[in-house]
Amino acid sequence: MQPIFEKNLKKKISTINLGWIQFFLNWKNQKTRIIEFIITLAQIYPSDHQFTERELRAWRRMMKDVGCTNITPFSKDKSQLEFWTYASDFNIDREIIQNLYNDGFLKIKISIPSLNNLSQSYEVTPLNEQKFWNSFQKSLEKNKRGLDGKQRILSIIVEEFGPKELHEKLQVSNHLITSAKHFARINDPGCSTIDKPKVTRTRVTEIQDAQFHTFFSDKNNVSMSSYSVDAKTGLPILYLKENKQSLWEKFEATYPDGIKRTSFMGRLANGQYVYRKDLGGLCNTCNDYGYVVFDLLITLIQGSLHEKSLKQFLINEIENLRYHLRRGFENELVMNIDGTTNHVPCLEHCLLHAFGECNELHNERCENCKQLFIVFQHLEQNLSSEHQQILEESKEKFTYFLAHQAWKKYLNSQYKAQLLDLNEDGDYVGFIQGRPLPHIGNWICFSPEDITKLVERPIHKPTPQILSHTQPYENWIIPLPNFEERVKEYLVAFFLAGDANKTERMSATEMVNTLNQLSKEGEIKGEDIPQIKTVESWITRYSMSLRQKAAEERIINNREKSLNQPLREKNIRNCSKKNTENLQKRQKRNNPNE
Known about the structure:
Elements (H helix, E strand, L loop, with lengths): L1 H7 L11 H10 L4 E3 H5 L11 H13 L3 E2 L12 E3 L4 H13 L23 H17 L3 H9 L8 H8 L3 H14 L18 H10 L6 E8 L6 E5 L3 H11 L6 H8 L4 E3 L8 H21 L3 H25 L18 H4 L12 H16 L5 H34 L10 E3 L9 E3 L1 H7 L30 H16 L7 H13 L11 H59 L4
Parallel strand pairs: 5-6
Antiparallel strand pairs: 1-3, 2-3, 4-5, 7-8
């Protein structure tokens, strides 16, 4: 038992040389296997010892580790007594205690002298009565929540005392007494205010709602993130390809009878629709070949050049190139409505040439496409030769990124062209199109006759039994998946306190118990306290996010050191060269004959 004692109790008890083993020996030597926990525990402590909740929790953990079981048949709000047994089959002892409690033979309203602050014996004297009224008067004076807080405090005793006595002892007004009675009848004495239900009304029809979702399903207007989701709705993040005003003008022209501008802007705010100038992270190719390269070039310019005007000129050129590749290039590619494309004189804009199907000459190049080669020409002229390899790799990545953008434009147009063929009156009505593997092989069209030959059993349209619509008596209560902000602040504080000092580290069970204690004190609501499994999952996610953030900071610091290392070595060589020249000049002045 010594390892269990060192694990649970050694750092938690304040009494030196405590005969803790005597507690278990006395328990084992008595005739019954059932004990009252606190009274039996007080026998091995000094008579003036005051237990703390932390010390009692440590004893309970140790007793559970050695195989003891709590069989108390009532909650702590009825009595502080706790009954424990060391029997392996504890159900028999639990049934005995439960029967004694149900039949009224178990005395639970007794004083516990060993817990001075938990003693239930209290004598009412004139001095104690005056202390009671003084404490209430001080609570009303120190209250910081104004009239609402005074109503809540006074509601505790307003039903037990008459208005005359309250006027005499607390000097409160009739209005406050009436408000406190009203508060107690609605929220119960001393309880927090019940939140009023929030009523939401919609003024958007189903047709207008469908128009909005259809507009933002078009890939010409949004780009879907490959991994980011909205925390509230759980839907994937949609990055807007244009600013909100431009999208509203386009939406209004497409759907003149759609939702109003205020509703349109409200739906785009604080949701899954995000407008970012830098759309890095939509997919691995766009992020690695189209956006990370820009940051690398800007960092290279800032660390290698010292002339402010030249540095600003090159950064502006890179920013303009970034905007063109992100916004303009995809819009310059022309696709027909049926998914085909034609020859374009500009080489970068000809999709037929990109697929190796164009045999005509390309004798033009637009100004925006020339900008890519001009930018790299300026970088090669102003940066040292040791950075030429980085520039060549960046140019190849930009070329691959342009091909990736053209491929996305082509695939999106093919999807729309196939949708146009699928109409109710067309030649493909009833057909099913498929192929064995995605992006491999040709599409195979299965006619209704082919489908009939393939199936072994006839296909019947299901006719489910649908009940008539009923009107609910009460609104649906859907639990929210996220923590309340107040509860989350406490959990973060518990976690960081344990991270700073390992002796104060708390488990998920201890966090939930502390939150329950705070709810009894009125700091938080009881229904906002999460379950133990939820807190365990939160601890895992939160610690993982902290480690990921620390790793990202280390990567950024290492990258900055690697970029600044060549410049630092060059400055050291220049300084050593200047110091050598100055030393030689000083020696010549001191020895002119030499």
